[in-house]
Specification:
alpha+beta, Multidrug-efflux Transporter Regulator, Chain: A, Domain 2, 3-stranded antiparallel β-sheet, 38% helix, elongated
């Protein structure tokens, strides 16, 4: 693929290893999605750098360091910026895709930071590595 200064949505999907639908119905609807830099054929064209910045800031999960021996609720984990919403944690717990809580005192599920960091290392990301140009 020739490296162009701009990318159209099929090229964005290919470069970042996601479906065209993910780009058009999820990413492009995000409030921080960059403005088009022009048009190529029937597609809007976006500056490559703007797309890379968007993916780095809003799509890629950033490693979060939690206190290993502190207990966290699902909401506290979301607030800590682990990249997963509390509702997703609760849902994944019922489906067996999230570790059992380390503490359930007073009916509140809480996990040690170490448990969460271990779970996050085994959790798949939302995308594959970008393709080299």
């Amino acid at each position: 693929m020739v490296d162009r200064p701009g990318l159209i949505t099929p090229e964005i999907a290919e470069r970042y290893g996601v479906s065209l639908s993910t780009v058009t119905t999820s990413w492009a609807r995000h409030p921080a999605w960059p403005a088009p830099a022009g048009k190529r054929g029937r597609y809007k064209e976006y500056a490559s750098k703007d797309i890379a910045d968007f993916v780095r800031t809003h799509i890629e999960r950033q490693a979060v360091e939690l206190e290993p021996r502190r207990l966290y609720t699902a909401q506290q984990l979301e607030d800590a910026g682990i990249g997963i919403k509390a509702v997703t944690i609760r849902s994944d717990l019922t489906r067996g895709r999230w570790p059992e809580p380390d503490d359930t005192a007073h009916g509140v599920n809480r996990w040690y930071g170490q448990t969460v960091m271990t779970a996050m290392t085994g959790r798949r990301g939302y995308r594959r590595a970008p393709k080299e140009s």
